[in-house]
Amino acid sequence: MSMKQLRIFWTVLFAFMILAAFIVPFTPLLGDFASFYGAFLFWNVFAIIVIICLGLITAKWRDFDER
Amino acid sequence: MNASTIYLALFLYFFVGSIIARYARKKMGKGVNDFFLAGRTLGGIVAALTYSATTYSAFMLIGLAGFTYIGGVGALGFELIYLSGLVLVAFFGPRFWLAGKRYNYLTPTELLGDRYQSKAVAAVAAVAAVIFLIPYSAVQLIGIGALVEGISGGAVPFMAGVFIAAVIAVYWTWTGGLRAVAWTDSLQGAVMLIVATVSVFFIVYRGFGGFNQMFAQLEAQYPAWLTVPGPGFFNIHAFIGLTLPWFFFSLSNPQVSQRLFMPRSLNQMRIMVMGFLVFGFIYTLVSIFWGFSARLLLPDLEVADAATPALLGLDMVPQVVALLVMLGISAAAVSTVNSIILTLSSMITRDVFKNLGGKADEHRELLIGRIFVPLFTAVILFFATLRLDLIATLSVASSSGLLVMVPALIGAFFWKKGTAAAVLASVLVGGTMATVFLYTGVYPLGLWPGVWSGIVSTVLFIGVSLFTRAPEHKAEEFIGYIQQELNDKKII
């Protein structure tokens, strides 16, 4: 993938995940699911996936040591 | 808890932090870059802790726990979507860092002014930041005042707490600049996280017998608190209105975005980002568990912000734990306030004073910057004495106002057609609109001020840019340089 395609890929992926984080817990699917396994677990899994993605992206940040 | 114990604890906290600040002063070089940016040499761990301690304020254990108390699990979504806003740093972090090194930027508003080739842009953005961040800082001091007053049963007056916190913040900042702020933040960040985490285990295991049991009780007694909109506080409009400005916090708040200039390498910035994410995830969960615990153990509180002080007053919480949590919350507030004071001082010095024709001599610039440290502290102290209500609302209000900077920042790195006139229009109109809607309580179409300020500033930035002339040469050179560097290193 070219750098441009990579930028578009990550932008679209993050946009999708963040929209899902706003919408899914408010849908009837999770909106009425009064349990640890409902919105609570959903948002935690969302955050963990975001952290893993950022770990992958920032893994490239290693060639700039100045000292 | 008696007053002398609280005063002694605060004194010890001040004493230890002051030793660190004095040591930082010895390591401090000369010049504004050293005072305000620690010479762009921060290591990843210190950078992560100062980024965390600056971002997370008294709002977390008081305001967010309060949101959970009245609104349930929506508070978790609100805060974790904020945390996911660090995806912006994945894109903007290396860009800020590269631009900062190449053009020697001291502040994010200086970056805006130079990129759009307009001193007015830098000055207006800096003044807007002052307007929105002073109430936010005052609220931090109010938080400490209310907390010490609450847990001492009034024996330590509100004003004593506010004043002590202000003295601590100004002394450390004045003594050693950003290096002192970053090092004391590191200690405070570690204290905040460890104390809050240990105490939540204490409460959950003593109060309920474990996390499973706590959730079982929630499901049985307060099922709505595990859903959204749940009890009603987090209806979709409120959720978006609160969350949207916070999602952009890492860009919109200059005390945070200025930290993108500070790591000594991009590798260290990586440690900063990943360290912050782990810190933020744990601290968020801890704050939410505080709120859930208070909901089950203290169901009749009238004021949501009282959830944490009331929990600390329960017999199941040993006094020493309560005292440490009080210090942890105070540390959260002080570490936010001193970072804001330093950032605002750098912005006023570089982007307002220097742009108004002040002498460019670095020694003089540093002197003026340092003078603004106690001046801003005095102003924040004054605002705190007004004792405005509800920490959470005011904290979010500042982000609604600062959101207007975001279109200009995105445009600076990604859109060559953006213009200075468009930045001024978006910041001035968007900022004014957020303030007016907030203070009048008028929410047109049910949308919150942060949503309106985001929409209006974006539309104005794009619209006005299309009808005015962009600084083409600068845009080409600035964006071209950064793209080239990033492409060479295969960074997105």
Radius of gyration of chain B: 22 Å
Number of domains in the coordinates of chain A? 1
| SS field, number of helical segments of chain B | 22
Q: List SSEs of chain B in N-to-C order.
A: HHHHHHHHHHHHHHHHHHHHHH
Total strand count of chain B, please?
0
Helices of chain A, by number, come to 3
Order of helices and strands of chain A, N to C? HHH
Global outline of chain A:
elongated
Report helical residue fraction of chain B.
over 70%
Q: Give the amount of beta strand of chain A, in percent.
A: under 5%
In percent, how helical is the residue content of chain A?
Answer: over 70%
Strand content of chain B: under 5%
Structural class of chain B: mainly alpha
Q: Quaternary status of these chains?
A: heterodimer
Q: Roughly how many Å apart are the termini of chain A? A: 31 Å
Number of beta strands of chain A: 0
Q: In whole angstroms, how far apart are the ends of chain B?
A: 53 Å
Helix-strand layout with pairing:
The complex is a heterodimer of chains A (67) and B (492).
Chain A: H1 3-23, H2 28-31, H3 36-58
Chain B: H1 3-27, H2 32-37, H3 44-55, H4 59-71, H5 74-84, H6 87-103, H7 108-115, H8 119-151, H9 158-207, H10 211-221, H11 236-247, H12 249-252, H13 254-257, H14 266-297, H15 307-312, H16 319-353, H17 362-385, H18 391-402, H19 406-414, H20 420-440, H21 449-467, H22 472-489
